[in-house]
Amino acid sequence: MSISKIISIPGMSGLFKMVAQMRNGGFVVEALTDGKRFPVSSSQRIIMLEDISVYTMHEDMPLKDVFLKMKEQDAICSAMNSKSDPADLKSTLKKVIPEFDEERVHASDIKKMFVWYSLLKDIIGTEPEEKIAETTDEKSAEAPAEKPKKAKAVKAKTADDTEVVAEKKPKAPRKTTKKEA
Q: Which of 4, 66, 85, 177 is 20 to 30 A from residue 147's alpha carbon, by CA?
């Protein structure tokens, strides 16, 4: 599982994994904490975690990169929880990301980052998404093309006992109907 399918829903605690898209444009999501699934309307606001970034002094840092830095210092970050003092949370984040902008990153945002990190730390950095794309491209390039089936020669005798050779074409795959499925 990658972070690209993980969302946050304002007004609801925790994180959710997008499971499927419904016909009306909404989604079926699964809570990461308890695994319960429920529908989310297309008019409801959702936030993709891959779209979130943290203010720094130079450039904004994507949340995925923040989580990777937190994983590098897992001993420090795992010790923090949502009930920790905001000053402790801020000083810990300062150890992880020294260049974050203290004026624009609020204590509530830092608290969310640590809560989300504790939910996602097992899946963060397991395999970078770029490598996944490269390996699928390599596999498709290495896979041999399917060979077309050859026509078989069929011998048959006619009514006057003369032998006729004809080619028998391979059958096309049969399409199933809704009744058969």
A: 177
Residue 1 pLDDT level (bands cut at 50, 70, 90): low
Residue 22 and residue 17: Cα distance in Å, rounded? 14
Residue 103's SS3 state is coil
Instruction: Compute the half-sphere exposure of residue 116: CA atoms within 13 Å on the CB side of its CA.
Output: 26
pLDDT at position 133: 45
User: How high does pLDDT run on average in the chain?
Assistant: 79
Phi, psi of 80 (to 5 degrees): -85, 145
Mean pLDDT throughout 93-122? 91
What distance in Å separates the CA atoms of residue 167 and residue 155, rounded to the nearest whole number? 9
Whole-angstrom Cα Rg for the chain: 28
Place of tokens 């897992």: 74
For residues 112 and 14, the answer to whether their CB atoms sit within 8 Å is no
- pTM of the model as a whole: 0.66
- Could you give the 3-state DSSP secondary structure of residue 181? coil
**β-strands 27-31, 16-21: how paired?**
antiparallel
Helix, coil or strand: residue 47: strand
